[in-house]
Amino acid sequence: MALVKVEQSISKPGWVAHFGKKPKDTHKHEDIPAPTIDYEKLKMLCGIEGLKGREDEKSSEEAHETFMTNYKEIFAKPPSKRIFHAQSKKSVDKFSSQMSITHNATGKKTDELRAVRDKKNYPIDEITHDIRDYLPLLHKERKSEHPEAVRADNLNTLRKLLRKLPFERTASDNDKMFSIFKTFRFFNDNVPDNILKELCVVALFEQWKDTDFTVFGRNGLYMVLKGSVRPLTYPHLNTPDNIVDSRSPTPLLTEESKDVLQPGDFFGTLEKVERKPGSRIFSVETVEPNCEFLKILSTDYTKVITQIDTRSNSEKKNLLLTCGRFQGWSDQTIVQVAKLIEWVSFLQIQF
């Protein structure tokens, strides 16, 4: 006797039983974008004579044919979106939205886009051809040429650049510092340009927040960037004209003879000075809180001088080795001869 398994889940025959295959998936209504209607064209079509309305119970054949021929024009065509390399998708969606294809589709004029573009190109709200409307804008951008204003602007620029660590500053930052250094008389009179360029790399930023704080300038050169200080000894700055007196104890200035150093003034020394224990040479005290300084250490200045001399001697040595007469000489002799060479620069003559 054979056993037959009966499928209990058999239901009433449906679509597959009648037609043999499942229907294709239809598109969802939310995926289909709503068409944009041009209401001017729609108003024109509704005004055709002979169409069925309140007065006419039936449309004429001519009016019906005209309506059917032109009814597709009430749907505004979306513009083609051409995305260039310099454009982002967000900007394309902003300026080519389907809801603002024409001013007739929304019932308002789209002047906002034109106003945005005009504001980017013109700093005034309305474009005019009167030159008097643009002169105040040029006057605002104009910088003052007064020496004190230029000096204050240079000091602010130095403060911003020096807040970066030496390895964080770029070559353009160092070039900007060099051009500012050249505006100060102390650097022009005492430091050659080739050395000054190298000092821009090792310049440091220093800040003291307390008043009546003693800053010892014997370890390097200081320039006041912000605040003010009062010298305690004379001289407060080491220059070729001053005779350094490093005796201990150091003679201090009286209250009447103390001058106040303002932003842009210098104190300290570039060259290392031998001092006796307890000497307070080149010392100053802060008068205001949060004083800021430019600092160049004497040790860094010595290293820069040594590196420049080594580089120059190496170039002179290579120059001597190119001559056949010096190729058989010993290295020590060539170095001694190289020290006697001096570079001479000549101005270019234009014919």
UniProtKB/TrEMBL annotation:
Database matches in InterPro entries: cNMP-bd_dom_sf, RmlC-like_jellyroll
SUPFAM superfamilies named among the record's database cross-references: cAMP-binding domain-like
Source taxon at top rank: Eukaryota
Gene3D superfamilies listed in its UniProt record: Jelly Rolls (2.60.120.10)
Name of the protein this chain belongs to: Cyclic nucleotide-binding domain-containing protein
Native source organism of the sequence: Mytilus edulis (Blue mussel)
